[in-house]
Amino acid sequence: MPGDQDAAWLRAFPVLIPGESYYSLLARYHRLSGNLAEQYTFRELFGNRPALNAAVTLPYRVRLIDGKLPPESRLSSDLVVRRCTAYHYLRLSGLFTDAAFEQILQARTKRGRNQWARMIQALQGPHPRHLRFCPDCIRSDTREYGESYWHLIHQIEGVEYCPVHGTRLIDSHWPDGEKLAHFYNVPDRETADRLAAESRAVSAPDPFEKPYQELAGVIDWLLRNTDAVGTESRLIELYESDLGILNIEKLLRQLTSAGVKFLESVFPGKEVLELTDSLYWNGMHHQRPVVHALMIMSLGGIPWISHYKS
Ligand SMILES: [Zn+2]
Fold it and tell me: What digits encode the pLDDT tens for the residues 175-201?
């Protein structure tokens, strides 16, 4: 009965695995529930809300699962937000208001569809990609946990390599986007190895392997430490303490310190012009998190930023 489902605890819930994305946690719940169709799982989790989809990196509707998580799971929506979503990382950019964040936590998105689309863009870039995986993570997860899962870090804009293994990430066959209507399983070891071999066969050597690996490391660090770093204004103060008052020439020189071609690779096509335009008008205010990650990288990366961690 739908009314009862709103109030009842779920019978079981998966144990959170470090680095797991919100989407992956819900997908594992779906498998555990034994539900034949995803709509039953969505109803159990979120009550009679019409949207039949799960967010990959954002904590969409996460507040609705409070009161349903069984006490032995020792999970709360706050913990899910902190560990499984890029919410705090996105807050670092200062692009969005508190009200916009409240809308996605509570699923009051009717009036906020534009905001929602902009948030996805800020996290996954203008062209959200397929669910991605690292074949080496699949191997080590299976060894350690008996199964693998979709890692949050692998789904974020600017992350082309696994920060743990340095391996180039592989696109799965599953559709792109931030909200997915189905729960897709992460490939098993054999499939992951086959997809990795296929991908290697068709891709040219990457001239930006090193800077991308470094960028992935900075983004990974930020995902886990954003609340300790603080706000966008605090970050800008830190930049200015190293660089002095920032102007467009200085910003561009700094952001291209890994090479102009690298910047053009992170922001392909028109995007690099849009970035330049936005830097001209806004400076480092209201930039996508990946722009901050690049700036931090150019100033010395993790050692530089962790020095300032309060
Ligand atoms: Zn990996």
Answer: 776 677 789 999 999 999 999 999 989
Closest CA to 133 of 208, 221, 179, 196: 196
Q: 222 with 289: CB under 8 angstroms?
A: yes
- How close is the Cα of 139 to the center of ligand 1, in Å? 9
Residue-wise pLDDT for 261-289, tens only, equals 999 999 999 999 999 999 999 999 999 99
- Please give the distance, rounded to the nearest whole angstrom, from the Cα atom of residue 133 to the centre of ligand 1: 8
The whole model's pTM is what?
0.92
Q: Same domain, yes or no, for 148 and 166? A: yes
Task: Name residue 118's amino acid.
Answer: R
Domain residues for 288? 209-308
| Distance from Cα 157 to the centre of ligand 1, integer Å | 16
Continuous segment of H or E residues that includes residue 171: strand 170-171
179 within a domain of the structure (yes/no): no
